[in-house]
User: Which sequence fits this backbone?
């Protein structure tokens, strides 16, 4: 039998929230309603039937050894939800913070733009405390990440409508504080630091592609055929080039190694270096295109300028393996750019969909010039 609770405490807390002007929402939990998770401070949108966003039921090779993967599924509803205690609220806040950080880094969202979109209901984060899952829903009017951030590595023009996360609980590292022995012989010990939550798996569909990921990489499949088209591996290195595990937090510099299962011209792989710049986001600094033998073909260097608190692309210089300038890309705006060929100075204005598309069009123009 379904039960509802309308206690005096419920009414008093509701009244205090209204008087304080704080954002809130009271959910009446319905059995079987995935959107019935209560939250305070972040507006949740109801979870709908995800039939439009399904995938084959097999498991991903990157995650567990096969060619495709099964979606994480919807957030499990809580059968009864009452006023959250402090510990529960803090757990919820830490889970939301983990997802928010991943959206900022993996998708390149600006922090202020992301928070404004959440406040406006354009992006919602729904978490399952028991299953450690999260579902992010992104509406069409939400801000678009720039192509020169981590978003550009994905090779899609628009962000996905639904992103599903599986989180995991990790103990915080740090010095242990000894207990203090009292006069009566009892010990007074400081509380253990609360755990943090990191991304274990992420899955979404966008631009006719299926993405399966974990903290160290992504696999990308054709949605209809299930055929893998590229793999992305994330790596981070210390000053002595010792590899640093990427799973607890996003570093200030990152290498993304992209292997194309279907070559883009002569390019079969691409090494991308990203650096966290003045606006606090990871931006593409270098992209090295390689052929099937692993030889360098073209090195693209991104030059930025800071404008109104955000980094913008000033120019992109492309050089061959010998260091000869092949072209310069400038006047880069929203999916528009001007390519100046080094050999004859010819200027060509183009439109592009993604970062990959921009480099491919520049490469074709450079090859045409050398014919």
Assistant:
């Amino acid at each position: 039998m379904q039960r509802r609770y309308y206690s005096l405490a419920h009414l008093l807390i509701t009244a205090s929230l209204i008087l304080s002007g704080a954002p809130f929402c009271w959910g009446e939990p319905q059995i079987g309603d995935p959107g019935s998770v209560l939250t305070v401070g972040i507006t949740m949108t109801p979870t709908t039937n995800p039939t439009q966003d399904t995938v084959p039921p097999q498991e991903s090779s990157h995650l567990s050894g096969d060619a495709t993967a099964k979606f994480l599924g919807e957030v499990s509803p809580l059968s009864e939800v009452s006023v959250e205690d402090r510990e529960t609220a803090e757990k919820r806040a830490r889970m939301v913070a983990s997802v928010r950080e991943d959206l900022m880094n993996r998708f390149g969202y600006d922090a202020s733009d992301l928070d404004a979109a959440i406040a406006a209901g354009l992006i919602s984060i729904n978490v399952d405390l028991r299953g450690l899952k999260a579902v992010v829903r992104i509406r069409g009017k939400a801000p678009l990440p720039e192509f020169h951030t981590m978003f550009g590595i994905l090779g899609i023009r628009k962000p996905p409508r639904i992103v599903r996360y599986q989180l995991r609980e990790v103990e915080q590292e740090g010095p242990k504080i000894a207990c203090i022995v009292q006069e009566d012989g009892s010990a007074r010990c400081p509380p253990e630091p609360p755990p943090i939550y990191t991304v274990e798996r992420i899955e979404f569909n966008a631009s006719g592609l299926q993405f399966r990921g974990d903290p160290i990489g992504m696999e990308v499949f054709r949605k209809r055929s299930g055929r893998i088209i590229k793999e992305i591996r994330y790596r981070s290195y210390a000053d002595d080039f010792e590899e640093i595990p990427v799973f607890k937090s996003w570093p200030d510099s990152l290498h993304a190694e992209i292997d194309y299962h279907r070559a883009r011209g002569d390019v079969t792989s691409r090494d991308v270096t990203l650096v966290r710049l003045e606006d606090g986001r990871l931006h593409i600094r270098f992209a090295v295109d390689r052929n099937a033998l692993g030889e360098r073909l073209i090195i693209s260097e991104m030059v930025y300028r800071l404008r109104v608190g955000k980094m913008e692309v000033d120019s992109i210089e492309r050089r061959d393996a010998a260091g000869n300038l092949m072209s310069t890309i400038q006047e880069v705006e929203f999916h528009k750019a001007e390519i100046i060929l080094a050999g004859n100075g010819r200027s060509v204005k183009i439109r592009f969909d993604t970062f990959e598309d921009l480099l491919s069009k520049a490469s074709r123009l450079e090859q045409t010039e050398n014919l």
